[in-house]
Design a protein that fits this description.
- The chain is α/β, with parallel strands linked by helices.
- It has 2 domains: about 170 residues, Leucine Aminopeptidase, subunit E, domain 1, CATH 3.40.220; about 350 residues, Zn peptidases (Aminopeptidase).
- It is about 30% helix and about 20% strand.
- It has 15 helices and 19 strands.
- The strands form 4 sheets. Strands 7-8-10-9-13-17-14-15 form an 8-stranded mixed β-sheet, with helices on both faces. A 6-stranded mixed β-sheet has the order 1-6-5-2-4-3, sandwiched between helices.
- Strand 14, helix 13 and strand 15 form a beta-alpha-beta unit.
- It is elongated and about 80 Å long.
- About 50% of the residues are buried.
- About 10% of the residues have low confidence.
């Protein structure tokens, strides 16, 4: 799909209205937006169409209600010129413009696309100055997103007629449009990867996608892949406890986006004694990959020591369980096919890195994809097993279906070697989150007020909504184990909260961190099951704001 700003309108050749649809599919369409007071958006630019619009509204009793449509398919007039430049007219209601938010913009964009995609090859949407920058960007992204399809496995694939979208708006919005296109590129990759079936998308496949990105953007991106032997040497036994039940090898995929400067992971071997890892032979070199404690942001006010490196990256950690059977704590059979989406967190991180490369934001970012398959087998972890995490803490695994927090725990330990400004992990983690928030908002937990504020601001600007959840110390007691440092589940009450509490135990004091639970927003269920591409818009807005404020 091509989308561009324009300052010109298609020409009209008719005053006749409500005729039958044109025989030719090679046609243009002018989309006119009208509010519930019958005010025409971009009215000043539509002077040549006023009479035609007025007649169409009158005879169709058009009221401008949100997503109301009426089309003028008439192509009468001069037959010769009509064939050369057929123009159709589509009126679309936007409702109350003052109350128009992300949801409304999404519905209007979908209405426009569905009304035209099989009929014309180009549309011009007359916006004028009706939308502010962030709403314009959301609208453009939603128009592009409406064109997304995943039908590669169908024997008969549908190809839309519509290929070009022109937005009649001020040229100053070009940067916002460029950003929306970058986000769409990343969001599409997220959806593509997440929609793949489990027999195609497994940990090695995710690594291949990351390596393909590195080849496409060699000046911006470096990719490193750790296998199970390397993770074993680093003491990442929580991660391996999930992966060991599958024939598919687990992978930790690291994508270093260097949009601002070259950076390196500051590591030290001082913590090797606490890791519980046995490092031998050629794997001794991996000792330098152990994390070191990040400098505390809450340093003494009288200290002149700078605690935050301006070039330090922001780290995004994605849960990448490419298929989640539940392991020995096996899931019910109903809707288990949707457990291919349990890698939605890593898919969104991969897509965000793609969008970053397209937008070329001046910021340093590390994406970590914690990829494993959770399967029942003779080698699978059993309920009651105890494993030692990379930070040396022991974990009693009471339920093998609480596996996402295990791969994330070790990955959180690992990425702190970058001494990042902030770490944000994202995961389709708990059904409790879906019960609490449904499918509208993702849950966010954080130990840092600045990161929380920045994420909430990005949520507002992008329309990719989140909701702040509690992380009170009182919830931590639910994770107490009589025989280990902690257990991996906290009981029925506050399941999403105790999952976040579990992850918080693997974040060093002073390290800014947030956790996003996207179990309710990463995909749509039922007959229309498909990945949504969230929270790529949220992440990109957050990173854009961070780059601008640096």
């Amino acid at each position: 799909m091509n989308i561009k700003l324009t300052q010109t309108l298609p020409k009209t050749h008719t005053q006749k209205i409500l005729k039958k649809e044109a025989k030719s599919k090679d046609a243009a369409c002018l989309v006119v937006l009208i509010d519930d007071k019958k005010n025409i958006l971009a009215e000043a630019q539509l002077s040549d169409y006023q009479s035609r619009i007025a007649q169409l509204m009158e005879v169709s009793h058009f009221n401008g209600k949100a997503c109301e449509t009426v089309a003028d398919y008439a192509l009468a007039g001069d037959k010769k010129t009509t064939k050369e430049n057929p123009v159709q007219l589509l009126l679309v209601g936007v409702g109350n413009l003052d109350k128009l938010g992300h949801s409304g913009l999404q519905k209007i964009a979908n209405t426009i696309y569905q009304s035209t995609q099989k009929r014309v090859n180009s549309i011009t949407v007359a916006l004028g100055d009706a939308l502010e920058e962030n709403h314009f960007s959301q609208f453009a992204l939603n128009l592009l997103a409406a064109s997304y399809r995943f039908d590669k496995y169908k024997s008969e694939q549908s190809t839309p007629v519509l290929t070009d979208i022109y937005l009649l708006a001020d040229q100053s919005l070009q940067a916002a449009l460029d950003f929306a296109q970058a986000v769409f590129a990343g969001q599409s990759l997220t959806r593509d990867v997440a929609n793949e079936p489990g027999n195609i998308c497994f940990p090695a496949y995710m690594a291949e996608q990351a390596e393909a990105l590195a080849k496409a953007y060699p000046d911006l991106l470096k990719v490193t892949v750790l296998g199970e032997d390397e993770m074993s040497a680093l003491g990442m036994n929580c991660f391996l406890a999930v992966a060991q039940g599958s024939a598919k090898e687990g992978k930790l995929v690291l994508l270093e986006y260097r949009g601002k400067s070259n950076f390196s992971a500051k590591a030290g071997a001082s913590k090797i004694a606490n890791s519980g890892a046995k490092v031998t032979g050629g794997l001794k070199a991996l000792a330098d990959k152990l994390p070191t404690k990040a400098a505390s942001k809450k340093s003494d006010k009288n200290s002149d020591v700078k605690t935050v490196n301006d070039d330090a990256p922001i780290v995004l950690v994605g849960k990448g369980v490419t298929f989640d059977s539940g392991g020995i704590s096996i899931k019910p059979g109903a809707a288990m096919d949707e457990m291919k989406f349990d890698m939605g967190g890593s898919a969104s991180v991969l897509g965000t890195i793609k969008a970053l490369c397209e937008a070329r934001l001046p910021i340093n970012v590390v994406g970590a994809l914690a990829c494993a398959e959770n399967m029942p087998s003779g080698d699978a972890t059993r309920p009651g097993d105890i494993v030692k995490a990379m930070n040396g803490k022991s974990v009693e695994i009471l339920n093998t279906d609480a596996e996402g927090r295990l791969v994330l725990a070790d990955t959180l330990c690992y990425v702190q070697r970058y001494q990042p400004k902030a770490i944000i992990d994202v995961a389709t983690l708990t059904g409790a989150c879906v019960v609490a928030l449904g499918h509208v908002r993702s849950a966010v937990f954080s130990n840092d007020e600045d990161v929380l504020f920045e994420l909430e601001n990005a949520s507002h600007l992008s329309g990719d909504l989140i909701w702040h959840m509690p992380l009170d110390d009182e919830y931590q007691a639910q994770l107490d184990s009589p025989i280990a440092d902690m257990q991996n589940i906290g009981g029925k009450g506050g399941g999403a909260i105790t999952a976040a509490c579990f992850l918080s135990r693997f974040v060093e004091e002073g390290q800014a961190w947030a956790h996003l639970d996207i179990a309710g927003t990463a995909w749509n269920s039922g007959k229309d099951k498909a990945a949504t591409g969230r929270p790529v818009p949220l992440f990109m807005q957050y990173l854009k704001n961070s780059a601008n404020n640096a």
